[in-house]
Amino acid sequence: MKLGIWSAGPLLALALVASTAAKAGGNDYAFEAVTPEMKKGDDVIVAVRLVHKPTGNPVPDAVIFRTRIDMGPDGMADMTSPVAPVPAEQPGTYAFKTDLPMAGRYQFSLAAKVQGEQDTVQGKVILKANK
């Protein structure tokens, strides 16, 4: 059977829609704080979970390539602390050692690459350090 241009058009459109729907984008992921509140201090371990929003599943093996922690939520964005990766306990969870020198709110900004995704996943998590 030979398909003419009019009969092939809907099949092609359906194939394009199916292939586009199968691909997720950077906005389909979110970082969440494992523990949003912690005690202030030096060498504090901050853990975040990377989640695929449509399924709610954690995303293991992402490559976190940019991190920043600052007190932007309390109007002190220039007050930053160093961030260093440390081993995490669960797949899809990413842990970091940092200093939270004073009580208040901190913004933890991250950028990651997820296997199979072209887009960079970016997120911000608000943490609270208590006395």
Automatic annotation (TrEMBL):
This is Heavy metal RND transporter. Pfam families: YtkA (PF13115). The keyword Signal applies. Residues 24-110 form the YtkA-like domain. Keywords: Signal. It comes from the Bacteria. Residues 1-24 form the signal peptide.
